[in-house]
Amino acid sequence: MWTAKNFATNDVHSLDKLLIDGHGDQIHAVVPKEVIHQFVEQLHEGELIHVKKFNVSTNTVTYRLVAEGELKIYFSINTVVKKLENQDVPIPMHTFSFIDFSDFPTRCRKPKYLTGNY
């Protein structure tokens, strides 16, 4: 989880988080600055949560956190976040998206995949 800022002005744009489910599927979640105050106490690294009433949008950013991340979720004033009572559910804390080394050249200079341009 991190705060997205305009580094020139230090203005906060959003609170961002990478969510992972029990299958290891990932999605980029965005809490816009207008509602950060509503969720900042409920969102913590490594905790299992249930989220409902969020918005889904096409991911149009230049750099994607998730290689197959065509969608993002956005929290709104109506979003409900509840910490799960059972925190022992086997959900991975980390996931990785590996590609064959031979596929590197097809990703070079395509920033959406966060592959180095060396």
Give me the secondary-structure category.
Answer: mainly beta
Query: Which fold name corresponds to the CATH topology?
Result: OB fold (Dihydrolipoamide Acetyltransferase, E2P)
SS elements, strand count: 7
CATH architecture: Beta Barrel
Description:
The protein is mostly beta strands and 118 residues long. It has one domain (2-84, 97-113): OB fold (Dihydrolipoamide Acetyltransferase, E2P). Helix content is 7%, strand content 32%. It has helices at residues 36-39, 104-107; strands spanning 2-6, 11-20, 26-32, 49-52, 55-58, 71-74, 80-83. A five-stranded mixed sheet has the order 1-2-3-6-5, with no helix packed on it. Strands 4-7 form a two-stranded antiparallel sheet. The longest helix has 4 residues, at 36-39. The two termini are 28 Å apart. The mean pLDDT is 83. Residues 5-83 form the Replication protein A 70 kDa DNA-binding subunit B/D first OB fold domain. Pfam families: DUF223. This is Replication protein A 70 kDa DNA-binding subunit B/D first OB fold domain-containing protein. It comes from Kingdonia uniflora.
Keywords:
118 residues; mainly beta; OB fold (Dihydrolipoamide Acetyltransferase, E2P); five-stranded mixed beta sheet; two-stranded antiparallel sheet; 2 helices; 7 strands; 32% strand; Replication protein A 70 kDa DNA-binding subunit B/D first OB fold domain-containing protein; NA-bd_OB-fold
